[in-house]
Amino acid sequence: MISPTAITDALTGLAAQIPVLVTANPVPFAVIAGFFVLIYAARAAARNRPVATDPSRLFSQAQRNEGFARAGGRCELDGFFFTRCKGQAHHGDHHFPWSRGGSTSMTNFVAACARCNTSKGAKIPSAWATMRMEARRRKYFPQGVPVKAGERFAHR
């Protein structure tokens, strides 16, 4: 097992070599630093951009009842190793977060247990997570009901 002092000594030695590397090769380090500055600026601009939100924030009781019935009362979010969570669904949530421009529609409704819903927060699900949910929905959604997960709000 590696001791904590050995790790600290290695990191200290590495930190001492950075100025030598930068003075010997200034152009690559300037390009890398500029790249990180651009990424940081782009992400900050994207976070601060105002988003059009659906005027209706909450799902109606009829929408909640229908969504829970479609899900069979179970949480639809990812559980252990990308399988469906086994928890009871008590929360009706937006798959694509309302605060990020998600619509309050049945296409964007997700039945979730309290643990999954609070850990999800206002994160935008990845395309891969959305595809997994849609694939799982094909197994338990009633015939003829669209399995699409997520929808952005559009001004009409």
Quickly describe the structure.
With 156 residues, the protein is mainly alpha-helical. It folds into two domains: 4-47, no CATH class; 61-140, no CATH class.
Q: How helix-rich are the residues, as a percent range? A: 40-55%
Mind summarizing the main beta sheet? 2 strands, antiparallel
| Domain module tally | 2
- Which structural class fits the helix and strand makeup? mainly alpha
Helical segment count: 5
Architecture blueprint of SSEs:
Layout: H1 4-24, H2 26-47, H3 61-70, E1 91-94, E2 109-112, H4 114-120, H5 127-140
Antiparallel strand pairs: 1-2
Report on the architecture of this protein.
The protein has 2 domains: 4-47, no CATH class; 61-140, no CATH class. With 156 residues, the protein is mostly helical. The chain starts with a helix and ends in a 16-residue tail after the last helix. The radius of gyration is 23 Å and the shape is elongated. The chain is built from 5 helices and 2 strands, in the order H-H-H-E-E-H-H. Helices cover 47% and strands 5% of the residues.
